[in-house]
Design goal:
The complex is a heterodimer of chains A (139) and B (196). Chain A is mainly α and 139 residues long. Chain A is built from 5 helices and no strands. The chains are: A mainly alpha (139), B mainly alpha (196).
């Protein structure tokens, strides 16, 4: 935090684009390469880069540990909840046909929700593991 | 994808040679910091190789997980453990023998594989035509990888997410387990967080 001015300014320039790229990978996954797992890892990488440059304490202000730890089971709950919702609509588990009127839109919605679940779990797990490793040496 | 097949073969040969060189360097390196950086380079070369093989999804995962997150986690581990490997006095004969036998068995196994890149390999005859026909007939998302992962095989992906969840919970329990007994979390302290 003392003489690394170039690193800090450069990181500030790069960080929003990393998050934007993660969201692009997430929401463009139907058409290009990528999906929830890659987007989750890239957005976790943004938090980790922020922690490396500005300190873990600053990173814990933008991504509080309690939130990160709650993201780990939340994504699995989103995924399973999508399956249960499709069961309640009278289809098979994780058959998204009932989510909209035509077949294509229903399945795009289903894939989108499920990929958000993957993103939440993967991002939460990566950041929580990073926090756990980093704060291990402090005690 | 590189159009010219000989140019593609040249790029592949360069990448594989670099992979072999990095592997030898990792085996000879005794400084753990160097090993971590070299394994990061290995992952990056592997991601480039996956791009040459047209597996862009795998390349993206390898670059972000292998070269990115796991390097950071390994560096954080080195911060805890110290970075010099203790010299080993044991003989290398048995590990060398096991490596050569396993490597020879793997090379022997590749002899029975179908030729690289042919379209009538068994893996392209089983369920893949069904997926491709079905998604074309119903105007599914153009990236069939996503459609297969999240739709046709959604249940498999749910299992994979559960694996990530379980692994994350396990690591968290191992590394910061017991903080509830101690009363306060170890991250409550505010000093000395400037560098990892």
């Amino acid at each position: 935090m003392r003489l690394d001015l170039i690193l800090r300014v450069g990181a500030k320039l790069v960080l929003p684009f990393i998050l934007l790229f993660a969201l692009y990978v997430q929401f463009h996954g139907d058409y290009g390469p990528g999906g929830g797992f890659q987007a989750g890892v890239i957005s976790a990488g943004m938090v980790i880069l922020y922690a490396i440059i500005f300190g873990v304490h600053a990173a814990k202000r933008i991504a509080p540990p309690i939130m990160v730890e709650m993201m780990v089971p939340l994504g699995v709950a989103i995924f399973t909840g999508t399956g249960v919702a499709s069961l309640l609509m009278g289809n098979n588990f994780l058959d998204y046909t009932g989510f909209a009127h035509d077949y294509l839109h229903a399945h795009e919605w289903g894939i989108l929700i499920v990929e958000i679940g993957v993103l939440v779990t993967v991002c939460g797990t990566m950041v929580a593991m990073f926090y756990a490793f980093v704060q291990r040496g402090r005690s | 994808m590189i159009g010219n097949p000989s140019a593609e073969a040249f790029v592949m040969a360069v990448l594989l040679t670099l992979l072999a060189a990095v592997t030898l360097a990792i085996a000879r390196q005794r400084n753990m910091f160097g090993v971590v950086i070299l394994s990061s380079i290995y992952s990056f070369l592997m991601a480039s190789l996956m791009i040459v093989l047209d597996a862009v999804d795998v390349a993206m995962t390898e670059a972000s997980v292998g070269a990115g997150i796991s390097t950071v986690i390994l560096l954080a581990t080195l911060y805890l453990t110290g970075s010099m490997e203790y010299p080993q006095r044991r003989s290398v004969a048995i590990p060398l023998f096991v490596s050569i036998v396993v490597g020879a068995a793997l090379v022997w196994g590749t002899i029975g594989l179908p030729a690289f890149g042919i379209s009538d390999a068994p893996i392209h005859q089983h369920v893949a035509p069904t997926y491709i026909d079905f998604s074309r007939k119903h105007d599914m998302p153009p990236n069939i990888v996503t459609a297969v992962l999240a739709d046709f095989r959604g249940f498999d992906t749910l299992g994979e997410v559960t694996v990530v969840f379980t692994a994350g919970i396990g690591v968290l329990l191992l590394l910061q387990g017991g903080w509830r007994l101690g009363g306060s979390r170890p991250d409550d302290d505010t000093e000395g967080d400037d560098e990892i």
